[in-house]
Please model this.
Amino acid sequence: MPIRVLPSALIDQIAAGEVIERAASVVKELAENALDAGATRIDIDIEDGGLQLIRVRDDGRGIARAELPLAIERHATSKIATLEDLAAVMSLGFRGEALPSIGSIARLRIVTRAVGEEQGTELQVEGGRARMPRPAAHPPGTTVEVRNLFYNVPARRKFVRTAATEFSHIARLTERLALAAPAVAFRLRHNERLILELPGASDERALTARIARIVGPDFLPRAIAIEEHGGLSLRGWLGLPTASRASTDLQYWFVNGRSVRDRLLGNAVRLGYRDVLYHGRHPAYILELRIDPQLVDVNAHPAKLELRFRDSRAVHDYVFHAVERALAGTRPSESVPAAATLTLAAAGQSTGATQPLWANAPVVNDVDRQLLWLRGAADAAVLAEAAPQEERPLGTALGQLHGLYIVAQNSAGLVIVDMHAAHERVLYEQFKLQYEGAAPAMQRLLEPLAIHCAAAEIELLLEHEADFSRLGFELARLAPDKLALRAVPALLAGADVAAVIAEVARDLGREHGAHHLDGAAHRVLGTLACRSAIHARRRLSLPEMDALLRQMERTDRASQCNHGRPTWTRLSLPELDQLFLRGR
Model:
């Protein structure tokens, strides 16, 4: 076949394939045009999943009668005029591709009235051919009707899913648009049935109602607000680690008001949650990043869903550290919900606790020692006595339950603490501080400890020798299957460190080659904390229990261990009264 210039209609259909993937793509382009036009209300009507009809109506500025024929010409736009404009674009649309692309693969009708004009104008396009504009009655704003999508592109239409599936994409898209533009009212109907009605949110209460309507009423009560400003600005809500989900269905990212699905931003948040989420769980969040438009390229994806940052490392680190700092405050307090919530059934029915989605991890090593940071029962008693009752979210220890849990009481009711998980988090945060410090506190042993390990496990330990050294360990090979331990962190003085190191070696062997966001250093620290923490059946005195509770209250992220398991829960006095039918 000889080289030839393709017909303009075919060129338009090829270009449309990059912009219009499905019916939801049409809704996205039209709704974004409405937002760019300053609309305060957008009505979306859908029939048959968008294949028969997509109608988007807004009350924006409208299109001037003289400019309407230009609006359906490829690369005709009012959003940019120069390369400098493209480098700093803030509008949602800017390429001038949407309307001509839609007109080439559907029957398109535009009725618009610009602000200041006395009469509206109608323009119809079919198969890429436009009819002459004509006068039409219309209030200020624009209505765009798209009928018979892909009617002239059968190869595309056969890949369209069911009407229910296609409409579900439209509904999710509308929700994202509504979160990105909270001040704009949205209404969505399918086959003349009202699906979504969202008034414009003019205050915080209305915004809260909109978020609850879109993502569910349980999100905000189980989330913390984040707001950071500087060269960049990040604000929104981070779901508590205990509000994690089995999928990524509740993750919303907005950059300069644009809904995006950006891998770099998603990874930055995931790294911020790295040691407070249980394996296989995903965080929930709604986040908006504000950045100088000259520092981000929004023209990197046909559908403008992905971005390219000029300094991607700086953006990644900014988001990661902001999320990490916000989550550091998830320690036991009266203002933060308990890590796990005990739910009582109604009176007259059986009662019980809602079980977490994970089981307690087994504890292998028996470290027969006192709590590492406890200098004595007398010091612990003084520490517990010094803190006023109202400053003790975890209350005062009453005793142990089966050698697994600490039972305490505070002014609100009953507190139950998983002592291994709690101590693991305390140790982990202390290890991290020591690792990041300049000179670790270490204790040199009078005689080196000989640790027997498999040769491959010793190789793995020595691969991480620099990480161990920064913690205060001094390791050396004695033989192919024997390791010498000459110094230990002061934090672990008195512990069965040889057993801990052997367990760490085995853990590294099991995880060798696995992908980790945070690399080997934090993996080693987490394993050390887990293997060094007090374990099941370890009997603690009341002063030791109280000391652990006080330490938890001062430790970042203490509501979860570094595997993401909850460390504590509480049962309020009203819940206890309900359990025993008091006052009935």
Observations:
- The first strand starts at residue 41 and ends at 47.
